[in-house]
Amino acid sequence: MLVWIVVSLLLTLVYAAIMRWYVWGWRALPEWHIPPDWVAKTPVTVLIPARNEAGHISDCLQSILDGAYPLHLLEIIVFDDFSEDETASIVTQIAQQNLPATIRLLRLSDILPTDAAGRANKKTAIEQGVALAAGELIVTTDADCIAGTDWLRLLVSRFESSPDTAPLPVLVTGPVLFHREKYVLQYFQSLDFLGLMGITGAGIHKGFQRMGNGAHLAYYKSVFQAVGGYDGNRQTASGDDMFLIQKVAVRYPGRIAFLKNAAAAVRTEARPDWRSFVQQRLRWGTKNAGLPEWPVRLILLAVFLFCWSIWVNLFAWLCSGFQAGLLYLLVFQVYIKITFDWILLRDMCRYFKRRELLQWFLPSFFLHTLYIPLVGTGSLFFREYVWKGRRVGVLGFWCFGVLVFWCFRAHCLDSGW
Questions:
Q1: Among residues 35, 50, 191, 39, which one has the least CA distance to residue 129?
Q2: What is the residue-averaged pLDDT of the chain?
Q3: How far apart are CA 44 and CA 31, in angstroms?
Q4: How far apart are CA 188 and CA 191, in angstroms?
Q5: Which residue has the higher pLDDT, 65 or 391?
Q6: Could you give the dihedral angle defined by the CA atoms of residues 367, 372, 375 and 380, in that order, rounded to the nearest 10 degrees?
Q7: Which one of 15, 40, 367, 412 is at 20 to 30 Å from 79 when CA atoms are compared?
Q8: What is the CATH number of domain 34-288?
């Protein structure tokens, strides 16, 4: 019992140190602005993998075309990943409007075997796009994202200018935010993602960990080819962004940057229901154990164990007849998590002008403390999930959660906790 209390306290202090470090790193990260004398001259190719995105692809393309980046320097390649809706025809219609920008549609069904329709093909699509790209700078985003007016100008200018004497980056990632929230679950996801953006920016700025999101990622074509693209990672359906970023970090140390500017954010909609949310997070979780950077894996493990310890201590307190010592430990853990989560999320909501999200902090705190251990455990034991109509078992995940609860309850009763 004493050993477990010591472990719980250590996990709590480690969590406080990690979160304090992230807050410090985000505040130290300088905001990027386009230099006054900067003129766009770099050809850019935007790659957009799409599957069953008929409801979003038009808005995505239009937001890019309406941007301030010169259209004669812009190429957009959309990859139709065996869509079963009108995604391809919508892209074709927009491409035929004789725009100054070049819009190309590549159907993966024309280059991949028929059995590829049942598996995730995003890595293949991006590799094909890089090979075909006319632009020397590759930018990736998702078909359900909407970009701001200065998105590409901010991105490209960051490649060509650098604060102080820092070397010019070869890969830049930036903020991805949720919008148009309607339900508690979506507000929670917005807060969670804002926190993730702060963690991403802080980690890259301090050179301690490199993460990013494929919905807002840019790199030179030559850099992608130099690191071998997705060689060694194709067996993992998710992680096209994280694996690439960390491979580039090894080949080009100190030349990865996070684009800190609220106007640079691309926006998408949060998952509308619990089922799709869990499937999304299981998909993300399946890549964590394979990430090459040990600091990222270590921090993920520490947060995972800390959140588990909160629930273990709660059940232990309930099963022990409400022992005061366990209650004090539990209150201390909750206090630390609430305090440091609030500090980071307050900073992020202020920066991105989403202060209204803070009214959802308490329910989001509960959901975050619950989903980290459950989904994290599920991603370790159940490697399959359903995404975009493909089975790449979520039922098993929930069964595992129920099994853990009843086994722990039985242990508490037997041990007299």
A1: 50
A2: 87
A3: 23
A4: 5
A5: 65
A6: -170
A7: 40
A8: 3.90.550.10
